[in-house]
Amino acid sequence: MPRAGFKSVTIKESTYRELEETYRREKEMLAQEGVGSLTAFVTRIVANHLREREKARLRHFNIYENVIRIQDAKIKRLVDVDYRNNEMFCNYCHSTECLHTGFAWGIYRKQRVTRRSD
Ligand SMILES: [Zn+2]
Description:
Blueprint: H1 13-25, H2 27-32, H3 38-56, E1 58-64, E2 67-72, E3 77-84, E4 87-90, H4 99-116
Antiparallel strand pairs: 1-2, 2-3, 3-4
Bound molecules: zinc ion.
């Protein structure tokens, strides 16, 4: 039984061995990044994967004036993010800190870099 606050998942022995070997090989480097156990290593791999998967659902649709329009495949909608007062505001989530505003910041920064090099 896992200790309180943890849940267990059963994986193939070969996968476990691969994870363990990779962890052992990179142990020192991982410790410097704050990953001090095999559990923490697996947790980080899974969390990174899920974050990337979430991002993959978004597509940049277009930009007009101060609005970045994003296609969100999960909710099957176009989401408008307003850029005002140095903040991104998502009109869908009514938030300045959601998946959409994070994605909009990425588009905004990339566009500024492109404009500067013109
Ligand atoms: Zn949002």
